């Protein structure tokens, strides 16, 4: 059997991890591999320098495993991570970093902006969130309106046991899905309780099926 390339080997290893974990590998100065997850993407590219303040930089500097929370100042999004340095012939060569999304606890409402003001909407009442015409719309049982958050920010805010990203433009509350229909070979259409039909894109279909168990 031929020896696998480094990228091919890391892709195989990455498949062993959850769809919610991104993997980054760096040498002592820059990243040489990055595999984003569906839940969090730090937009790292091979060749990007390892920035001070990241857990990868701390692990390389301290030459030991580092596990901690990093706020949004470094990559624009907060994340939890674990970085483990590796050596060859006793010399530091780089590190491997596992990147986990941050799930915010303590909040239970989304405050929606309407024409008349703002309405706090309980999570359970939110049916889906859609990005359209560069605006984020929150659709709920009692009202609909806009919000300043992006879908990516909502992924960190909303409880993951109820809300699933199914498309680059949609997050849905699974408790408001009435039926799921096959659309093409590998995608689906969600029939919501209010009659709305929401697509599940191909890039999210396997992740969506895994989370809903079908």
Largest sheet: 5 strands, antiparallel
Radius of gyration: 20 Å
How many individual β-strands?
Answer: 15
- How does CATH name the architecture of the largest domain? Beta Barrel
- Helix and strand composition category: alpha+beta
What would your notes on this structure say?
The protein has 214 residues and is an alpha+beta fold. It folds into 2 domains: 6-101, Beta-Lactamase (2-Layer Sandwich), CATH 3.30.450; 109-212, OB fold (Dihydrolipoamide Acetyltransferase, E2P) (Beta Barrel), CATH 2.40.50.40. It is built from 4 helices and 15 strands. The strands form 4 sheets. It has a 5-stranded antiparallel β-sheet with strand order 2-1-5-4-3. Strands 10-9-8-12-11 form a 5-stranded antiparallel β-sheet.
Topology:
Layout: H1 6-15, E1 22-27, E2 31-35, H2 55-62, E3 66-70, E4 79-88, E5 91-101, E6 109-113, E7 118-122, E8 126-132, E9 135-140, E10 144-147, H3 151-157, E11 163-167, E12 170-173, E13 177-182, E14 188-192, E15 197-200, H4 202-212
Antiparallel strand pairs: 1-2, 1-5, 3-4, 4-5, 6-7, 8-9, 8-12, 9-10, 11-12, 13-14, 14-15
Task: Give a brief outline of the structure.
By secondary structure, the protein is an alpha+beta fold. It has two domains: 6-101, Beta-Lactamase (2-Layer Sandwich), CATH 3.30.450; 109-212, Beta Barrel (OB fold (Dihydrolipoamide Acetyltransferase, E2P)).
Task: Quickly list its features.
alpha+beta; Beta-Lactamase; OB fold (Dihydrolipoamide Acetyltransferase, E2P); five-stranded antiparallel β-sheet; 15 strands; 41% strand
């Amino acid at each position: 059997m031929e020896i696998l390339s480094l990228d091919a080997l890391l892709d195989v290893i990455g498949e062993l991890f959850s769809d919610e974990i991104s993997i980054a590998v760096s040498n002592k100065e820059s990243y040489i591999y990055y595999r984003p997850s569906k839940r969090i993407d730090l937009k790292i590219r091979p060749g990007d320098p390892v920035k001070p303040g990241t857990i990868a930089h701390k692990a390389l500097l301290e030459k030991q495993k580092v596990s901690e929370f990093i706020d949004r100042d470094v990559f624009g999004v907060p994340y939890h991570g674990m970085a483990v340095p590796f050596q060859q012939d006793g010399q530091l060569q780089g590190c491997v970093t596992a990147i986990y999304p941050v799930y915010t606890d303590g909040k239970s409402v989304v405050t929606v902006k309407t024409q008349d003001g703002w309405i706090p909407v309980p999570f359970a009442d939110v049916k889906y969130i859609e990005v359209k015409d560069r605006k984020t719309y929150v659709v709920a049982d009692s009202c609909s309106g806009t919000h300043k958050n992006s879908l990516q920010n909502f992924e960190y805010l909303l409880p993951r046991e109820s809300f699933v990203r199914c498309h680059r433009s949609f997050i849905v509350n699974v408790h408001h899905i009435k039926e799921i229909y096959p659309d093409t070979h590998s995608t689906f259409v969600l029939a919501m309780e209010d009659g709305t039909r929401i697509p599940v894109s191909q890039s999210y279909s396997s992740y969506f099926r895994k989370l809903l168990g079908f």
